[in-house]
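Supplementary Methods. Inverse-folding protocol.

Structures were first reduced to a discrete structure-token string of length 375. This string, shown here, constituted the complete conditioning input.
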């Protein structure tokens, strides 16, 4: 029986082994492990890729969110809007930065932040839209409201490397909106390091300098520290690996989109929900997520057929034990709560073949058929 992994990082490495080995060896030969030319080169390349003026490499996506919130000067009484369905890094960054989390429910069709449910009259200081599963939160209405109410936008692009949207027929890159945007380079991301890593991009020179200072012990120069900071730097080896991978990202994303197209075409006749896309959306398809009321049974069935799957995420953020003190009750976030019980992430990565995608769809169809016969 064929085994289909959820991601296949070994195959990716095999395909670009010489480039990766060279990228690592160059850093080792120069001993530029912390800071140095390889970090600078990657930061410049990624700033260009996202159409931003500045990029600051950091230790993780979580660090990027936290450091940016600190640099923005959030205070204990400041509310920061976070979608109710995301990874905890989005919300915990708010807490550790010292601000108040304000969860907002997501939309039914794509599980992205429901902008219509944000109460701007409450005067939140920052909104963190999350490009969940690789689809961008469409920026137009959100940007207009944030300008009107003077709210800062910190975009969580940790799942949308290379995603785009059409605005007035212009294709606009993920990360190019808002006060700043943050990416994660966790190994399984579309652009992944060989360990943890992240980056902040912005057009604000003062903000960029402050984030860089915070990430490096408040350093002005080697032993001159104007403030206390943190140790949240991106290593030279990771930066060199990421620069080598960056040149492949557009191709890898196109391969993901090819696999997603097969999924969509096969799943539509089955009546299976998947994240909606309009003609304006060019998702990076970090994940391909479906919904099914018997999610756990479907997951077990696919596992028996050699298909690995994931759940992103099984508990809506407000109902995690970590946030019990906020006093949210079942039913406060109905869309996120229902989705968390039904969502299932299917394998999607550049190396997955059409045959493998079709095999997965065949097994989902078989599961549905069995369920109908049983019922």
């Amino acid at each position: 029986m064929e085994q289909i992994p959820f991601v296949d990082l070994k195959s990716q490495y095999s395909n670009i082994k010489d480039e990766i080995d060279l990228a690592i060896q160059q850093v080792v030969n120069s001993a530029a492990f912390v800071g140095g030319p390889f970090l600078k080169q990657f930061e410049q390349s990624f700033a260009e890729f996202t159409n931003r003026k500045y990029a600051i490499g950091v230790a993780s996506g979580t660090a990027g969110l936290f450091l940016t919130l600190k640099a923005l000067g959030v205070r204990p009484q400041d509310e920061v809007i976070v979608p109710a369905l995301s990874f905890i890094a989005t919300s915990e960054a708010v807490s550790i930065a010292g601000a108040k989390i304000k969860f907002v429910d997501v939309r039914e069709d794509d599980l992205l932040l429901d902008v219509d449910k944000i109460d701007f009259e409450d005067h939140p200081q920052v909104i963190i839209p999350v490009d969940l599963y690789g689809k961008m939160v469409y920026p137009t209405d959100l940007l207009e409201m944030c300008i009107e109410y003077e709210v800062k936008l910190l975009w969580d692009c940790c799942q949308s490397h290379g995603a785009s949207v059409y605005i007035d027929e212009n294709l606009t890159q993920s990360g190019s909106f808002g006060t700043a945007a943050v990416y994660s380079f966790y190994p399984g991301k579309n652009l992944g390091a060989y360990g943890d890593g992240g980056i902040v991009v912005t057009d604000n020179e003062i903000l960029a300098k402050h984030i860089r200072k915070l990430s490096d012990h408040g350093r002005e120069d080697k032993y001159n520290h104007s403030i206390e900071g943190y140790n949240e730097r991106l290593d030279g080896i990771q930066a060199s690996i990421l620069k080598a991978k960056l040149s492949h990202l557009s191709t890898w994303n196109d391969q993901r989109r090819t696999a997603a197209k097969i999924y969509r075409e096969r799943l539509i006749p089955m009546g299976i929900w998947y994240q909606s896309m309009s003609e304006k959306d060019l998702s990076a398809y970090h994940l391909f997520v479906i919904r099914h009321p018997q999610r756990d049974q479907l997951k077990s069935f696919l596992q028996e057929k050699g298909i690995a799957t994931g759940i992103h995420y099984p508990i809506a953020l407000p109902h995690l034990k970590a946030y019990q003190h906020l006093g949210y009750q079942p039913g406060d976030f109905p869309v996120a709560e229902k989705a968390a019980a039904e969502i299932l992430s299917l394998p999607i990565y550049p190396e997955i073949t059409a045959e493998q995608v079709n095999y997965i769809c065949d097994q989902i169809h078989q599961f549905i058929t069995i369920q109908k016969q049983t019922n």
